[in-house]
# Entry
Amino acid sequence: MHSNLVISQSDSRPMYLQIMDQIKQRVAIGEWARGEEIPSIRQLAVTLRVSVITVKRAYLELEREGVIVTQQCKGSIVAFDSGLSPRLYDEELTEQLDQVARLGELLGLTPRELESRLKEATERWTAGRLTKERL
Amino acid sequence: MNDLSVHFEGVSKKYPHFTLENIGLELPTGSIMGFIGANGAGKSTTIRILMGLVHQDQGTVHVLGHPMPEEQAAAKLEIGYVSEDMRLYGAATLEWHMRFIRSIYPRWDQPYAESLLQRFDLKAEQKIKGLSHGQRVKAALLLALARRPRLLVLDEPTTGLDPVARHEVLGELMAVLADEDRTILFSSHNTLDVEQISDQITFIDRGRIIDSDDKEIFLDRWRRLRLVLPPDAALPKLSGIVQVGGSDRLPVLTTNSFKSDMVSACHNMGATVQAIDNMTLEEIFVANVQSRRERQTV
# Structure
């Protein structure tokens, strides 16, 4: 399987966390399907030009979180019940939006004001992400 | 594979102005070790002992199971060595060098050598004296890699390379490791390269190994804590602090044995922990060397 993960040296998080996040994201959006075989530790290390021990650590933590399953001598697969799915993200979004609505009411904001605050937040986030990528 | 490709025990070597003292090294087969030290710290001397080029006064050295320097001829058949001062014949072409090495080493892999020529963007028919520094390094590396050695020993392989060439070289080194019977030891003072591809990291300073560990453990145990102290409060006493910097009210503590309970310990002593920073390998190396040198001079 093609890994196409990207490790950034300007990202201040440790490399194993970056690997974990990107794998989780791929599992969450279904790009890496449940039960599907994922690259071996060594393969991924070679493609990412990152040490074996770093990838090994990411895999161990992902296994502990139940995202992947590693079978002795047979490599790793995406867990059948990884706990990550677009649906879960969607539920979390609904939850967070409810909170936003609650706080808006507390502050006495009109729905329109709330909308423009959300728009600002989106812009801030995109700008932040882009600067990070450019660096 | 759990065996060791390189094993140093209690190795010492005395020179008039420099002593390599009690060096212990263990490099498991299938992994890659970054050997970091300032200029003159003893990296090259250690590597020369490993190659049997310099004989130790004391201690034992085993490379791929061969005692060194006694069995250096047998060991060298399986070691690929590239150093900065490696001399290739200026008047001869790269092609000539390839044929020469091929005539000595039966395991020479010609298709691999040709693919490396492409990937390193080198021309076989070019004479060595016409090559740039970066091209020479890549040529030397090609000659070592195509022998398919079980152990690659590289003394400063990325020094003086431009970013593109460095990227190519690091990629090729990782590709070697796809085969788990192969092992790499490389020395560098470019900590970024070492941080990226090494499994094991060893720091050497003033002829002694000052720290050696698995990279993930290294990066995990070193942290910088930025504190805010109330006026007239004393600095919290914590164990495992190697350096104290910053100001009286805003001290910065560097630890080599970070544990999460340090944060609560700081709170209990009235200090606020403003940030817990991860450190890069470079910062860790510098802090490590400085704190040890300070202790030596006290």
In short: Chain B touches chain A at residues 30-32, 167, 170-171, 174-175, 177-178, 180, 192, 196-200, 214-216, 219, 278 (CB under 8 Å). The CA atoms of residues 60 and 184 of chain B lie 20 Å apart. Chain B has two domains: 4-212, 223-278. The longest strand of chain B covers residues 4-14.
